[in-house]
Specification:
CATH architecture of chain B: 3-Layer(aba) Sandwich
Mean pLDDT of chain B: 96
Distance between the termini of chain A: 38 Å
Low-confidence stretches of chain B: none
Structural class of chain B: alpha/beta
Number of helices of chain B: 10
Number of domains of chain B: 1
CATH architecture of chain A: 3-Layer(aba) Sandwich
Strand order of the largest sheet of chain A: 3-2-1-4-5-6-7
Oligomer: heterodimer
CATH topology of chain B: Aminopeptidase
Number of domains of chain A: 1
Shape of chain A: globular
Radius of gyration of chain B: 21 Å
Strand content of chain A: 5-15%
Number of strands of chain A: 7
Helix content of chain A: 25-40%
Structural class of chain A: alpha/beta
CATH topology of chain A: Rossmann fold
Number of helices of chain A: 8
Helix content of chain B: 25-40%
Strand content of chain B: 15-25%
Low-confidence stretches of chain A: 19-23, 25-29
């Protein structure tokens, strides 16, 4: 009955094992590399952005986070122009300011894919305005050669019929990403694999979201 | 004497007999005590009224178990019995009390938070008054309680329950619900006095994290999850991801809504330095469209109507012929609670809490729940506490 400590002791080994899971790459063989500083954000305002932030923290990657940044805020770089959190607008900055002073342009943006009407409502957004906001961010990233990572960690509950809210968020980000990370349950129909093949985007699939920790560590090595 | 006299007399006798039998059963239910064997780490057993004088000599007063580690560290609170009909919470809390070895820090356990609800039944629903858990030494009998405090202890209900301090208008039913009465007040309703006493305990004992254990319908989206406010979110997310990946059961995180007042996961976070977490395990017994509310349904979670609904994708959890047996539900609570404590301790090494000898999900599925309860008749009488 030493279960607690068995699990605690095995966790680091488990993370190492997950980090060495064979890469399911489509379109290119080499594992992609991304650079700091990095901004995390949501596409669809689901709670999965908390999963992404927890993964970043577990991977030891310092990041800035904003749930609803605009292209203008993204342009402000590290610190997002000094924006402050308020109801319906969350912001967190853990970026190492000794390495990247405020205003340093972001070199990577990580999008957590998943729609929540409750989350969008809390930020005063609709599906349409959220898709427009995300599309503006994607365009800015493309114009400024900012590396885009699309993360789908929510599994089957964050998928739906074609045209549904979750699929709209996937359509808005995944085909334009430089790297796609997906938990197995969210890719049962091979949707992300197909996007990777069609667009030449590397796709990594993991059994569980926790497996993304090792991949994120490698991505920013 | 009229000809109808004997009939009337017979009817009065029948009604009196039914009332006498039911009254005797209700009396037994209200006064039967649950023996709890204090495990190796239990250093002190207090009454909640020590933190709220308004609870003294009421049916809402309840036992508080302090499990002390050899090394100083942080402090965690596990609360069960907020809703006394959600039995997996109580069984999980007792597994901690009777088995845990605390190596560092302090674990505080309140097995029956709404004690008044535990001595009340669910009128009209045909719920059992008692249920038994098979153990290696016989059957351990528990009272089956209700969601709200007994009207014998808190009455009358208001037309509308006005939450303190936010003045949000809630259903009159929630006046007796200790998961709508946070943060409470020392001179308020009995349920408000319970939560106010816990708030004082959190402050005086410098509790870092508070876990409130529940069960939820399979048709309710907030099930199989941890509900967490902003300050608890990162720990909850890591705990959820870890148990999902390493222990093979699904678990997700739900954000605590800011606009819905009176709930532990909202008010504890807003009114104290403690980070709250509310754990929901799937509990088919609570679902409305089931067959009779039998002890078998309580234990196995097997129901043909839910199975049919699962086929129509109306449930929010996986569901098959095996139902949701009690071993899985209690196992989930134990594993998630341990993992939250573990993740907190990783983030706050200065306030770490280390616990061993508590079974996790796989242990409970393999051995059953009763395997972890100790025989009160064989225990040192000084270590047996009647709650």
């Amino acid at each position: 009955m030493r279960g607690t400590w068995r699990v605690a002791a095995l966790l680091p080994l488990f993370l190492v094992a997950l980090a060495t899971v064979p890469f399911h790459a489509s379109g290119q063989e080499a594992a992609p590399k991304a650079a700091l500083p990095v901004l995390t954000t949501s596409a669809g305002q689901s709670a999965d952005v908390n999963t992404v932030n927890a993964i970043m923290e577990q991977a030891g990657i310092k990041y800035d986070y904003c749930d609803v940044p605009t292209a203008a805020m993204l342009k402000s770089g590290v610190g997002l122009g000094g924006a402050k959190a308020k109801p319906g607008f969350h912001i967190e900055s853990t970026t190492d300011l000794a390495k990247f002073k405020a205003g340093t342009p972001y070199r990577t943006v990580v999008f957590a894919l998943g729609a929540s009407l409750k989350g969008m409502g809390a930020s005063g957004l609709t599906v349409e305005t959220e898709v427009r906001r995300v599309t503006d961010l994607i365009q800015y990233c493309k114009q400024h050669k900012i590396f885009i990572v699309a993360v789908h960690a929510g599994g089957q509950s964050k998928r739906g019929a074609p045209g549904s809210d979750n699929e709209k968020m996937i359509d808005a980000v995944a085909p334009f990403a430089d790297y796609i990370l997906v938990a197995k349950d969210g890719n049962k129909d091979g949707r992300f694999t197909k996007i990777g093949q069609d667009k030449g985007i590397p796709v990594s699939q993991v059994d569980y979201a926790l497996g993304m920790v090792g991949l994120i560590t490698r991505l920013f090595e | 004497m009229s000809r109808s006299g004997p009939v009337k007399g017979l009817l009065v006798a029948v009604v009196a007999s039914v009332a006498a039998v039911a009254g005797a059963q209700f009396h037994q239910h209200r006064h039967q005590r649950l023996p709890i064997v204090a495990g190796p780490a239990v250093a002190r057993v207090a009454s909640l009224s020590e933190y709220g004088e308004g609870l003294a000599r009421t049916m809402a007063d309840t036992k508080v178990f302090f499990l002390q580690g050899a090394e100083p560290g942080g402090s965690a609170l596990i609360m069960a019995g907020t809703h006394a009909n959600e039995i997996d919470a109580l069984l999980s809390a007792l597994i901690f009390v009777e088995n845990a070895v605390v190596e560092k820090g302090t674990l505080i356990v309140i097995p029956q938070l709404n004690h008044s609800a535990s001595v009340y039944t669910r009128p009209g629903d045909g719920c059992p008054l008692f249920y038994g858990i098979e153990t290696p030494w016989g059957t351990k009998v528990f009272r089956f309680g209700d969601r709200g405090a007994s009207p014998l202890d808190q009455w009358p209900d208001p037309d509308v329950y006005v939450h303190y301090p936010d003045a949000q208008l809630l259903s009159f039913l929630d006046a007796r619900n200790t998961n709508r009465s946070w943060p409470g007040r020392p001179d308020g309703l009995l349920t408000e006095r319970v939560t106010a006493a816990v708030m004082r305990l959190l402050a005086e004992e410098r509790v870092d994290i508070a876990l409130d254990l529940h069960g939820a319908e399979t048709m309710f989206p907030v099930t199989n999850c941890i509900v967490a406010p902003e300050r608890s979110m990162r720990i909850a997310t890591m705990a959820s991801m870890t148990v999902t990946a390493m222990e093979g059961f699904e678990n997700h995180v739900e954000p605590s809504p800011k606009g819905f007042r009176g709930l532990s996961h909202r008010e504890i976070g807003d009114h104290s330095d403690t980070a709250p977490f509310l754990l929901e395990a799937p509990f088919p017994f609570l679902d409305q469209p089931t067959g009779p509310k039998t002890r078998d349904l309580l234990m196995t979670g097997r129901d043909p109507f839910l199975l049919s609904l699962a086929g129509q994708q109306k449930l929010f959890v996986p569901y098959d012929e095996s139902g949701w047996p009690i071993e899985k539900r209690v196992g989930q609570h134990c594993s998630v609670a341990l993992e939250i404590i573990n993740q907190f301790s990783r983030k706050r090494a200065d306030r770490a809490i280390r616990i061993s000898e508590v079974p996790r999900y796989a242990d409970l599925v393999r051995n059953g729940v009763g395997f972890y309860f100790h025989d009160p008749s064989k225990a040192d009488p000084a270590r047996v506490h009647l709650d």
